Amino acid sequence: LIDLQCEDMVDVRRLKMLQMVQLFKCEEDAAQAVEWLSELLDALLKTHIRLGDDAQETKVLLEKHRKFVDVAQSTYDYGRQLLQATVVLCQSLRCTSRSSGDTLPRLNRVWKQFTIASEERVHRLEMAIAFHSNTEKILQDCPEEPEAINDEEQFDEIEAVGKSLLDRLTVPVVYPDGTEQYFGSPSDMASTAEHIRDRMKLVNLKRQQLRHPEMVTTES
C-alpha cells in the first residue's frame, strides 16, 4: 500500500513537472507571438506604403494586404490560445502565471494598433483604385463614347478623390492611447503624392482639350 502511495505521489509530481514545463513554454511562446505581431505592425507602417501606379497594380496590392492581414490574424489567435492554455495550467497547478497578466494586455494593444493601421491601409488602397480607374477611363481615347469622356461630373469626381487621397496621405494613424504613427517616411509620402498630382494634371489637361478642341488642332 505504501509503495502504491509512493508511486502515486511520484506520478503526481511528474505530472506537475510536465505541466510546469508546458506553462513556461506557453508563456515564452505567447511573448514571442506578441513580438511577431509587433514586427508585422512595424512592417505594415514602414514598407506597405505604395498605392500603385494604376488600378490593376493597386488591386494586386490590396489582395496582398489582405493575405498579410490573415497572417497577423493567425499570429494574434495563436497568442490568445497560448494565453488561454496558461490560465488552465495555472488553475491546475494552483499558481500565478509569471507573464500572462502582462502579455495579454500587450497582445491586445498591439492587435488593436494593427487593425487600426490595416483599416487605414485598406481605405487608402480603395480610394486609389477608384482614382486610378476613373483616371484611366478619362485618359484612354474612347471616340465611340465621347459623351462619357465629356462628362464634367467625372472630371470633378476624379479631382475630388485625388484631393482626398492627397489629404489622406498627410494624416497619421491615431491609436486609442493618443499616439500617432505615419505610413512610411516623408520622402515616401512625397513620392506617392507626386504621382497622384501628375495623374491629376493629365486629367486636367484632357479636360482643357475637350473644352477647347481648337487648341489641340492649333498645336498639332
TrEMBL record:
Protein name: SEC14 and spectrin domain containing 1
Organism domain of life: Eukaryota
Molecular-function GO terms, alphabetical: phosphatidylinositol-3,4-bisphosphate binding; phosphatidylinositol-3,5-bisphosphate binding; phosphatidylinositol-3-phosphate binding; phosphatidylinositol-4,5-bisphosphate binding; phosphatidylinositol-4-phosphate binding; phosphatidylinositol-5-phosphate binding
Upper lineage: Eukaryota, Metazoa, Chordata, Craniata, Vertebrata
